[in-house]
Amino acid sequence: MKTWAGAILSLALLAGTGCATAQHETGAAATLKGDAAHPDQTKGWVSTSLYFGLGLADGDTGVTEAQWRNFLDREVSTRFPDGLSVRDVYGQWRGKGQDTPERLRSKELLLLYPDTPKARADVEAIRAAWKRQTGDQSVLRVTQPADVSF
What we know:
By secondary structure, the chain is an alpha+beta fold.
């Protein structure tokens, strides 16, 4: 996925196949509605992007695609089973005590969810699990309000 629209489209496609239509306050039509996971109108949802370093961009060591997918299955999909998006990204990071940034193969994980204490704790548990598994110092998190319609 090269754009936010593509990421959101892929999340919507993962959500299922309901075909009811509802009119929103904004005038946009929803394509799914009627259950807690896919309300026709959302309030209080957020979008969180997490950035995971997989290894040096110019090296062949680090986390493999199979290890990444295992992590998704074990730590992410169990906490956010209704859908998510992942993109391959290039990143740079300058860790503690480093003079120059490392160039990294990375993954961006995009999650859209109702902003609840449990969901926030689940996001933090994912970050902690990655740091435990890899020894990384950090997993960048960016969270912002999201106007979501299914």
